[in-house]
Amino acid sequence: MAEQELGDAVIRRQIGGMPVPEFSETAWTAPPPLSEARVAVVTSAALHPRDGEGFTVNDASYRALDHDQRQLVLGHWSPNFDRSAFGIDYNVVYPLARLDELVEQGVIGSVASKHYSFAGNQPDDVATIRHDSAPACAAELKADGVDVVFLTPV
Questions:
Q1: 2 falls in which pLDDT band (50, 70, 90)?
Q2: What is the DSSP letter of 3?
């Protein structure tokens, strides 16, 4: 009997040769010291409010999430993702409580009023995110005075 291939191996084979964008220059800005920085979370967990619009297959848009809103749905539908930890403590994917604690301790200056969620399971072509939704999200982060983004890839 042939061994059954596990989901992770299937996914790695499917996306292993996917082209990665190359950039002639790397954008870089020096943030202020963390004790003065405004921090936001950007996640690829497809988080959205329970009563809000969820993500669909190949959805390259994003959702703005209010900092005080914690009743969220993890919309990531990959069969390789274990959702149990998120159900126990949302901070494993969306660490807002930890960021609030860091503000109280003076480690970071402030937490943004909005955070952002994308669906991480994307098709081979991520051009829409690269050219449209990611720059739009970055503009919203910049308008909110965000200095540092804490990325939680899921």
A1: very low
A2: P
